[in-house]
Amino acid sequence: MSTPDVDHPLQPGERVPNIVLDAISRDGKISLDDFRGHSPLLIGLFRGLHCPFCRRYVAAMAQLNPALREKGVQSLAVVNTPVERARLYFRYHPIRDLLAASDPVRASHRAFGLPIVEFTEHETDWPHKLGMDVVTTLRVDRPGELPEPMNPYDAGELLIKKDGYEIMEADQQVSLAGRMQLVGHFLLDREGVVRWSFTEVEDAGGNVCRALNPDELMSAASEIGH
C-alpha cells in the first residue's frame, strides 16, 4: 500500500499514515496500525546498517527500550537495509526485545517527511543540498569513541574503521552516492499523532549524525505513556 509523501518532517499534532514493513526481529510484517489504539510508539527511521551512526542509534534505542516500556511506550527501529541482510547483522548483534523493520525503498522516511540531502562542493540549500564546506564546520561528539568532536564525515570514517563492518552487495544497493537520507525519531501517542520528534532536519544541519537527548525523550514519554 502506498503512503503519501510530505514535504516537511511531521510535527507535533500531525497524524502519521499507516506503514507496513517487513519485520527483521521476527517473521511477518509490522504496521503502524498494530499500535494505534493500543500504545504510544517511539519510531526511529534510520539509514541502512552500513551507516555507523545508525548502528549506534539502533543500539541506543535498545538500551532505552526497557525504560520506555515502563512508561507504556513501545519502540520500533526502521532501517533501509534489505531484510535478509539486516537479519544476518542482528543475528550477530542482537537487539533484545526491540522490534525492528526493513524499509529499503524508504517509504517510511518519505511518509514522515525526511528528505534526502545531496552533498555539493559549496552550494547549500538545506535540507536538500549541503556543501562540504559547511559539513567540515559541523561537529559530532561521541565521548569514548571519538578522540574529540569531529565533523560528520571524518567521524564516520573513523567509526567505520573501528567497527570493521563488512559492506555487502545488499548494503551497496541502498547506499546513496553523493547523497544521504536524513533520519529521525518520532514519538507517537496511542492514536498515531506525533507528540515529540528529533530529526537531522532540525537546526539547519546541526543535528546531522547527532544522537537525541535521552532526558528530553523520557520527559515527553512520561506525558503520553500509560
From TrEMBL:
UniProt xrefs under SUPFAM superfamilies: Thioredoxin-like (SSF52833)
Source superkingdom: Bacteria
InterPro entries: AhpC/TSA (IPR000866), Thioredoxin-like_sf (IPR036249), Thioredoxin_domain (IPR013766)
Domain Thioredoxin: 10-226
Cross-referenced Pfam families: AhpC-TSA (PF00578)
Alphabetized GO MF terms: antioxidant activity; oxidoreductase activity
Recorded coiled-coil stretches: none
Protein name per its UniProtKB record: Peroxiredoxin
Species annotation: Sinorhizobium saheli
Upper lineage: Bacteria, Pseudomonadati, Pseudomonadota, Alphaproteobacteria, Hyphomicrobiales
